[in-house]
């Protein structure tokens, strides 16, 4: 069984309860849970405040707004979006949606095609989450480096140390006080920036 933290949270936006029930039945709970229903764009927005959805399935047209415009509002996040549109406008909508990273399927389609699209979205959201985590980690390392460098320059300026002496001082302070280098650097910065 997929661990609870790795299950994909799904929000299905559709006026039709039957559509929601049909789509929900295709999503195994061991992989997709919870599966929530919203009847309109406004209802979906309210539910998205509480539900950090991984996958957003939109049955267009919506009762209160254009399905593609609704999807575009969420395309900058790390949610996988599947937009279902009538087959007569599929080409036109899918071209624009693709530029926003929105997967589009024509209606009607087979349950197998739908399931394949959902599995692809699921894989994409896992990959996006890993990339986002890696970016956060790199960002933290850059902050650490900037903080340590700032502390080094303050030591060089105020204590007349060489760069290597300042680096050693920060490392020794961190070791002696059982801190990270960044925490030790923060203490040094606090001391000199009054």
Q: Tell me, briefly, the overall form.
A: elongated
Q: What order do the strands of the largest sheet run in, or round the barrel if closed?
A: 2-1-3-4-5
Order of helices and strands: EHEHEHEHEHHH
What structural class should be given to the helix and strand makeup? alpha/beta
Helix content: 55-70%
Distance between the termini: 55 Å
Please report which band the strand proportion falls in: under 5%, 5-15%, 15-25%, 25-35%, 35-45% or over 45%: 15-25%
| Number of E-state strands | 5
Average pLDDT works out at 90
Largest sheet report = 5 strands, parallel
Number of helices: 7
Low-confidence stretches: none
Gyration radius (Cα, Å) is 25 Å
Write the topology of this structure:
Elements: E1 8-13, H1 17-26, E2 32-38, H2 41-50, E3 55-59, H3 67-72, E4 80-86, H4 90-99, E5 103-107, H5 111-159, H6 163-176, H7 181-192
Parallel strand pairs: 1-2, 1-3, 3-4, 4-5
What does this structure look like?
The protein is of the alpha/beta class and 194 residues long. It contains seven helices and five strands, in the order E-H-E-H-E-H-E-H-E-H-H-H. The chain has helices at 17-26, 41-50, 67-72, 90-99, 111-159, 163-176, 181-192; strands at residues 8-13, 32-38, 55-59, 80-86, 103-107. Helix 5 (111-159) crosses helix 6 (163-176), helix 5 (111-159) crosses helix 7 and helix 6 (163-176) crosses helix 7. The N and C termini lie far apart (55 Å). The mean pLDDT is 90.
